[in-house]
Amino acid sequence: MINNILLVLVVLGLLFMLITFSVKLGNFVNIRDIIKKHLSFFKNNKLQFISIYIVPIILSVYMGTIHLINKELLNNLIIILSILISMFFAVLTILCSIDIKNKNDVYKELLNETYTSTVFEIIICIFLLLISFAALFMGKGFNELIDTIASDTIYYLTFILILNIFVIIKRIEVIFQSRY
Questions:
Q1: Cβ-based neighbours of 163, under 8 Å, separated by 6 or more
Q2: How confident is the model at residue 141 (pLDDT cuts 50, 70, 90)?
Q3: pLDDT digits over 28-56, tens only?
Q4: 25 lies in a domain?
């Protein structure tokens, strides 16, 4: 009984946070616009979109079926995500410090896309942290369906995070090769 009440409260809290951050409000980040901008970068390359966002669905369902997330994996993921978030903020600092006064429009657009992709990665990391903390605090065995959904979601977001890191690396490489 108490587990069901806790589950409802967690779901309501997450939904409220999701709605709050997806609506354009004064001091909050407009996550919806960041996600739209980031996904629009793939409009001319459907194959890359499929490989980064659709294929991981299949992989995450498979991974969630053969191995549910456990406490040890969650603890390691939380540590890695904390390191990644600080690294992404450092990347944002570097991107913001690049002088664009004498650069062409393509270079400026690439820099802006890289900035948006890095912010997108930070958002993914934060969502992963929230889901990981919720899964860690609720514990395995809370509800089989909830455990499977949480595992699939964590695996999916982790795959997206890793694949988008490759996108950012490629963009940064192009930015720094064409800076002169």
A1: 51, 52, 56
A2: low
A3: 677 888 888 999 988 888 899 999 999 99
A4: no
Identity of residue 105: D
Q: Cβ distance 34 to 116 under 8 Å?
A: yes
Average pLDDT, integer, range 75-103: 90
Closest to 150 in 3D by CA, of 163, 133, 125: 133
Domains: count for the chain? 1
User: What global pTM score does this model have?
Assistant: 0.84
Contact 156, 134 (CB under 8 A): no
Is it the case that residue 151 has pLDDT exceeding 80? yes
DSSP 13-67: HHHHHHHHHHS--SSS--HHHHHHHHHHTTTT-HHHHIIIIIHHHHHHHHHHHH-
Q: How many residues does the chain have?
A: 180
Residues 47, 53, 56, CA angle at the centre, nearest 5°? 110
Provide the residue range defining the domain that includes 89: 30-177
Q: Maximum distance among all alpha carbons in the chain? A: 65
Q: Please indicate, yes or no, if residue 123 is contained in any of the structural domains.
A: yes
